[in-house]
Structures are given as structure tokens and as C-alpha cells.
Specification:
Number of strands: 11
Order of helices and strands: EEEEEEEEEEE
Radius of gyration: 22 Å
CATH superfamily of one domain: RNA polymerase II/Efflux pump adaptor protein, barrel-sandwich hybrid domain
Distance between the termini: 58 Å
Shape: elongated
Number of helices: 0
Helix content: under 10%
Strand content: over 45%
CATH class of one domain: Mainly Beta
CATH topology of one domain: OB fold (Dihydrolipoamide Acetyltransferase, E2P)
Largest sheet: 4 strands, antiparallel
Length: about 120
Amino acid sequence: MKNYRITVNGVAYDVAVEELGAGEASAAPVSTPTAVPAPAKKAAPKTSGSAGAVKITAPMPGKIVAVKAQAGASVKKGDAVLVLEAMKMENEICAAQDGVIASVEVAVGDMVEGGDVLATMN
């Protein structure tokens, strides 16, 4: 028997798989997997400064592949602040208004969920 942990839709399952020899078949009943608690999320976000009044949030879950504006940078409405990869597509996350980036809460390679704060601005 070999034991594996499989995660489906964020729920981890421990399963045992029996190895069969060549030409061997098994009619053993299938057991129901038991749920295992999912790993805890990261403790604290990485911040680049003090938080601003306007939050820039992730519209969907994905991976941060680029940070285009650092804390202290002036941005215009529509300027790309970050690039989020979701479902193999790169999505530019843009400033909703003119302002100055107060903090960047994520780094390249971070996995984020929809609604997570990515950056703040004033």
C-alpha cells in the first residue's frame, strides 16, 4: 500500500493505493476518503510601507508575476500596478484613480485569493 495526500478544490484527502502485480485484479471494496484540514494560509502579508486609503484588490485567485509600481510611485487612473496570472492568462491590475502607491502587500510568486489586498494608494 502507498499513501498519498490529494487536494481537490482546496480540501485535502489522505488515500491509500494498493499496488497490484502484472495481470492481477482486485475486487476489494473502495473506502471513502477522510477529509484532512487544508494547510494554513500565510501569516502576514509583505508590506512595503504604511497602508493607504484606497485598496487595490485581486479580482480573482492567481499568482503575482510582476510588480510594476513600487511604494512611492505616482500612478494615473488605468496604469498597471501589478500583473496577476490566472488560468494561464496574465491580467494587469490597474490603478482605479490617480494617486501615489502607499504600499505593495505582495511579492512576485505570491499566490492570492479573490478579494485579497494587493496594494494600497493615497
